[in-house]
Amino acid sequence: MVNLEWYRTFKAIYKTGTLTGAADALFISQPGVSLHLSSLEAYVGYKLFDRTGRKMIPTERGKVLFNAVAEPITKLEDVEKNFQKSTEKHTPTISVGMCFETFQTTLEQYVSSLPFNLIISFGEYPEMLDQLDKGILDLIITPKKGSSPNIEHEAFSSEQIVLVGGKDVDKAAFNKLLKTKDIEQIEEWLKNEKWYGTTGDMEHLFQFWILNFGHKPNFRPNYIVPNMNSIIRCLKGGTGLAVVPDFLCRSDIESGEVQLIWEGKKKFENTLYFGCRKKTNYQTEIEHIKGLFRKVMN
């Protein structure tokens, strides 16, 4: 008999486009994702994806299967979450959506002390906004505001997107170039360094490059790792550059394990918002979580 988790994993791979992205979305290991996919492919008897580099491209049969199972799986997930809430009368369960890095840097350290149950979801911001509007999520942390009249957004902090590097990067040489204001030479110097990026998400790098050089970067990062916290840990090895939100590496910069290389010609900042429904039964629990975020990020 088919395991329904195989379908859930298949849907996650289809939507994220990578095994790593599916693993992050489901909060399971990448080998577990691979096992689910191979088991499902063996069960249905045909390939569901073509593996092109790091991307998972759905086959025609994969597309047909996704169209058949996506909506039923989503409904089952909704039932699962809503039923869990309705049956836990004494201890509320709060569902919160955010990116993986934000969770690790902020809320993770407090989870064991929370006086209520917690479900953390990772995903793309449009998807989280939709789940918040439908009542699947109770609170989201997002740099983007939605347009639903049922959702209110509260700005609570900001993140600056900065260029950082390992402690062995020759920052003095780069600073000399900055004084010349020769944009072409500055860009060339940066391109000759080793770069880190994350799977499927280059938005910060693209926006930083466009803001400072007027176009998207015409190179690919040398090393692609699962998430931005992985980048910070890799940079502690001494070399390499990356564009990341400053709050992820503030303590590492202060300790000297990572260098702040450049803030850019113009500061690149995102406002961070709490998003929640205007009508909720969990106002007390939501305010508790908001307080923890303010404590860490302000």
Automatic annotation (TrEMBL):
One example of the protein's molecular function in GO is: DNA-binding transcription factor activity
Enumerate the spans annotated as HTH lysR-type domain. 2-59
- CDD domains membership: PBP2_LTTR_substrate (cd05466)
Query: Which InterPro entries does the record associate with it?
Result: LysR_HTH_N (IPR000847), LysR_subst-bd (IPR005119), WH-like_DNA-bd_sf (IPR036388), WH_DNA-bd_sf (IPR036390)
Keywords from the named record = DNA-binding, Transcription, Transcription regulation
> So which domain of life are we looking at?
Bacteria
> Where is the chain membrane-spanning?
none
Under the heading Gene3D superfamilies, the entry gives: 3.40.190.290, Winged helix-like DNA-binding domain superfamily/Winged helix DNA-binding domain
The keyword DNA-binding appears for this protein: yes
State a single Pfam family of this protein: HTH_1
Q: What family classification does the UniProt entry report for this protein?
A: Belongs to the LysR transcriptional regulatory family.
Protein name, as recorded: DNA-binding transcriptional LysR family regulator
* Organism, scientific name: Chryseobacterium sediminis
